[in-house]
Specification:
The protein is an alpha/beta fold. The protein has two domains: 240 residues, Type I PLP-dependent aspartate aminotransferase-like (Major domain) (Aspartate Aminotransferase, domain 2, 3-Layer(aba) Sandwich), CATH 3.40.640.10; 134 residues, Aspartate Aminotransferase, domain 1. 38% of the residues lie in helices and 15% in strands. The protein contains 14 helices and twelve strands. The strands form two sheets. A seven-stranded mixed β-sheet has the order 1-7-6-5-4-2-3, with helices on both faces. Helix 4 links the parallel strand 2 and strand 3. The radius of gyration is 21 Å and the shape is globular. The protein binds ligand P1T. Ligand P1T binds next to helix 3 and helix 4.
Length: 386
């Protein structure tokens, strides 16, 4: 008999963890809004004791998330930084960690104000394999933390190349896959040990939840992270897990729509006289365009660009848009715009920001799935006002 075809991504987001309720047949899974579970005798229960440890709604979400990254295990936490906290506590104290030099401001902050007291953190350009090789030889790191594409400069690390170096040096590799979502990039299939997401972004997609997750096939690492989750407490609420399960159902079509709009807008901006330079992985001018094409199945919905002028001009532009909302975060169906130096990356010292290229005329767009010409008209009017 012909081997049964495995279900594909667009089916997984809807069906894995989404089976109808056994008791009632309800097609939508119930929200198990409970803190505790009845036991028939002390220690005798149905696998659930207390919601900080386990919850059936969260378990369904974890089942779905593991399948999307082709992992054996997934763990969901109350935020992206919550899951980062668990990952960074799960390694031995005094470990050396190499980290991409351009990362989300909150990741930079947690590494330089909290985990620098426990571990030795070294920021390096992970897009340069020679730099990584040299740093691995010199520092013998326990872990390498890769954000790809980076936030906000959209630098792309060759995940296959760097994770194979990590394997050579016996270094655990983590990829923050928030910007691509599991739809456009699957770091575990490229050799990473652990993948993490801020679920707050594309995975949920509706700007109504804060959450985080990690996926891995390394059982002992998963067990450690779960034990820490249970001990430290950053579990996600059942309602938030349910919302992410709901948001995930449209991940495949949302990501295609984000990308379609972003390509058109990146090309529009690239030609605009008031724009100095556009960074988008799908533009041939992107320095790692070839790597992006090879390791991702799409280019995503994030665009970064440098407006011609100074901080005053950037502010005028940001105050003038009407459809794009001036707000932190990304990955929702609605378009957002922000100023990394003042907003999402303010916790990075000015000197460091400038050295990596986060300047005062840098603008970041999270392109939503609205009508693209409406979005372009909004940008056009705001650019005219500058
Ligand atoms: O906000 P939280 O769910 O804790 O996720 C943190 C995080 C981790 N990794 C990346 C790549 C991120 O972009 C974020 C959060 N980023 C924003 C809030 C932002 O506007 O960039």
């Amino acid at each position: 008999m012909k081997k049964k075809r495995e279900i594909q991504f667009a089916t997984k987001v809807i069906h894995v963890g989404g089976h109808p309720d056994k008791e009632t047949g309800a097609i939508m899974p119930p929200i198990y809004q409970t803190s505790t579970y009845v036991q028939s005798s002390p220690g005798k229960h149905k696998g659930y004791e207390y919601t900080r440890s386990h919850n059936p709604t969260r378990s369904r979400l974890e089942e779905c998330l593991a399948s999307l990254e082709e992992a054996k295990y997934a763990l969901v936490a109350s935020s992206g930084l919550g899951i980062a906290t668990l990952i960074l506590h799960a390694i031995p104290p005094a470990s050396t960690i190499l980290c991409s030099d351009d990362v989300y401001g909150g990741t930079y902050r947690i590494l330089t104000t909290v985990f620098n007291k426990i571990h030795n953190i070294i920021f390096i350009d992970t897009t340069n394999a020679k730099t990584v090789d040299k740093a691995m030889k010199e520092h013998n790191p326990y872990m390498i933390w890769i954000e790809s594409p980076t936030n906000p400069l959209l630098k792309i690390t060759d995940i296959k190349k760097i994770t194979s170096l990590a394997q050579k040096y016996n270094t655990l590799s983590v990829v923050d896959n928030t910007f691509m979502s599991s739809y456009f990039q699957k770091p575990l299939t490229l050799g990473a040990d652990i993948v993490m997401h801020s679920l707050t972004k594309y995975m949920n997609g509706h700007s109504d939840v804060v959450g985080g997750c990690m996926m891995t096939s390394n059982k002992s690492f998963y067990d450690k992270a779960w034990m820490l989750q249970n001990s430290l407490g950053p579990s996600q609420s059942p309602f938030d897990s349910w919302l992410v399960l709901r948001g995930l159902k449209t991940l495949a079509i949302r990501m295609e729509a984000h990308q379609k709009n972003a390509i058109k807008i990146a090309k529009y901006l690239e030609k605009h006289l008031k724009v100095d330079h556009v960074i988008y992985p799908g533009l041939k001018s992107h320095p790692q365009y070839a790597i992006a094409k090879r390791q991702m199945t799409g280019f995503g919905g994030m665009i970064t660009f440098f407006i011609k002028g100074d901080l005053k001009k950037s502010k005028k532009f940001l105050e003038s848009v009407q459809l794009f909302a001036l707000a932190e975060s990304l990955g929702g169906v609605e378009s957002l715009i922000e100023h990394p130096a003042i907003m999402t990356h303010a916790s990075i010292p000015k000197k460091v920001r400038q050295s990596i290229g986060i300047s005062d005329n840098l603008i970041r767009l999270s392109v939503g799935i609205e009508d693209c010409d409406d979005l372009i008209q909004d940008l056009e009017i705001a650019l005219k006002s500058v």
